[in-house]
Amino acid sequence: MNIPDWASAPEVPELVPNELHVWRAPLSPTIDQLDSFGDVLSSDESVRRARFRFEEHRQSWSASRTVLRHVISQYIRVPPGEIRFDYNKYGKPELRRDQNHLDLCSNTSYSSKIMVCAISSGMRVGVDIERVRDLDDLDRLADRVFSATALRSLHELPHDQKIRAFFNCWTRKEAYSKALGLGLSLPPDSFDVTFRLEEPPRITRVSNPSVDLSGWLLADLPLDEQFAGAVAVEGLPSRIRSWLWDWDRIPN
After folding, report:
1. How far apart are alpha carbons 174 and 145 in whole angstroms?
2. Label partner for 216 (CA 20 to 30 A): which of 1, 98, 118, 203?
């Protein structure tokens, strides 16, 4: 199942069980909208924002959290600034139970000036995007991300294909790890995904024999060639909808 091209979002999106919604947002708000972040972010989010060393990183992170809050607000009908999250021991945010009457699951990722947010009802979901770029230490990073078998397959590729394959693997693995809520605590060599350009995205192996891989969907996001992105969903959605976030949805 593929992610459809991005479309204009409805004024009031409706999420039904067994459906996946994916949002894409440019992280380029106006000055007025940047000034409004303090009215939306929680106190702990404001503390985390202050830890970023560079202003550009503070703004990107703040913008991504603001989009997440406004997207979720559309579904649960709670003002963005009143939404509350709990965090599991690996740091993954989860909407508080008393606000989560839709059994909503969400995950976000951003890179450069693009943010994506995946929303589902009752299905664990993870998403990741990365800007595709040349890496001086690609082989060293691949040693950490790829299993021995996958690493041999990667090294068979010419350099230009190797870069894209590396980021395909990185984002697909990260999406699956984030869907599980384990983040970096899941050893990257404990499971494999496809990554060659001619292969559709798929989880091919996990070290846990109790995991039914047929119950997981792994799909690439429709991004331009500068980015790689993937979403992982526990379950087979009956429908996938992908929408563009417009900053004009937030009143100044």
Report:
1. 10
2. 98
